[in-house]
Amino acid sequence: MVSTRKVPLRQCIGCGEMKSKKEMVRILRTESGEIVLDATGKKNGRGAYLCPRMDCLRRAAKSKGIERSFKMPVPQEVYAALEKEMEQIGQ
Questions:
Q1: Does residue 4 fall inside a structural domain?
Q2: Is there a domain that residue 56 lies in?
Q3: CA distance 53 to 58
Q4: Is the residue at 62 inside a domain?
Q5: What is the DSSP string of 26-83?
Q6: How far apart are CA 43 and CA 19, in angstroms?
């Protein structure tokens, strides 16, 4: 008997597509309330997932998807910082 491994799926907060966890980029709210990009996907805190495309980040900002996921207001500076970090990843 060969068992198949379950692939964890996550929903993009920008476009709403379900993709495997490894294909997504994790946005993290730390315990101190700071919002950062988690490239490793292993840091502690509340996480939300985005497709690795700038378009999805912009959609999430426009629809306030990040604010809904973290249940807190997100300042515009955080969106600008997330855009810079996303560009550095090269996606």
A1: no
A2: yes
A3: 9
A4: yes
A5: EEEE-TTS-EEEESSS-SSSEEEEE-SSHHHHHHHHHTTHHHHHHTS---HHHHHHHH
A6: 20
The single residue listed with the structure tokens 């306030």 is: 64
Number of domains in the chain: 1
For 41, the domain range is 9-89
pLDDT by 10s per residue, the chain, length 91: 778 888 889 999 999 999 998 888 899 998 888 888 887 878 888 899 998 888 998 999 999 998 999 998 888 888 888 888 888 876 4
Report pTM.
Answer: 0.82
If we measure between CA atoms, which residue out of 68, 57, 76 comes closest to residue 15?
57
